[in-house]
Amino acid sequence: MVFLQVKAFVTQDIPLYHNLEMKHIPGADPELVLLNHYYEELDRIPLSDMTRSEINKLLGSLGFYKKAQSEDPVPEEFRFSPAKESPWKETPKAPSSSTPAPDTPVPSEDPDPEAQHSDL
What we know:
120 residues; alpha+beta; 2 helices; two-stranded antiparallel sheet
């Protein structure tokens, strides 16, 4: 009976969750595999003995965003959910003026052609 609950979750609820994908592995017991941004495994949670309601509560407690309809947009604040922050921080924008910042070394006009290159 619980298997039918998991099947209902897979077919009806997974499409509503942002950043949740289903990979069918024939013969394997259903489990939730949590990955980080680099696709490294963080945890495995067996789902076989859970009801559909329990699985939905679990995903909510883990921070997964559930849409009302599968085609609904995901609000910007949930774009990286369930992760709390994106590992790809915005890079600082370059200063708008062409003058370098005071601490920025200015390259010399005449590079020394005899200089050693340590990166080769």
